[in-house]
Amino acid sequence: MRIFILLILFISVNSFGCDNATESFYARANLKVFPEKVSGEISSEEAKQREVNGEAYYIQLVCDSGDVLMLTKRLNGKVYFQIDYLDNAQGIYGKITTNSEGKTTKYVHE
């Protein structure tokens, strides 16, 4: 019973930590830092145009609290990679990266 209660608490904290998230679109990202930093915000219309033209752009999903949840790069009309950030009460501590072929890699930063 204790394990079940702990599991429910874990799922509740991790699944419902963000009530509302917003997508923003960007032209560039610095991928050599952690967490990755985006720049050159673009409109959703420009993102759609880049999609049609096969150009790259980034989609960042941010919780209303300011926590970055995910970063996706789209290129040639499909996902090139996606980064899902791992966080806890102290902030972002790692990420799970999924490449265009669906292969995932987990990174934990200390």
Short characterization:
With 110 residues, the protein is an alpha+beta fold. The chain has helices spanning 2-15, 44-53, and strands spanning 21-30, 37-42, 57-63, 68-75, 78-88, 91-99, 104-108.
Explained architecture:
The structure is a single chain. The protein has helices at 2-15, 44-53, and strands at 21-30, 37-42, 57-63, 68-75, 78-88, 91-99, 104-108. The longest helix is centred in the first third of the chain and has 14 residues, at 2-15. The protein is globular and about 40 Å long. Strands 2-1-3-4-5-6-7 form a 7-stranded antiparallel beta sheet. It starts with a helix and ends with a strand. By secondary structure, the protein is of the alpha+beta class.
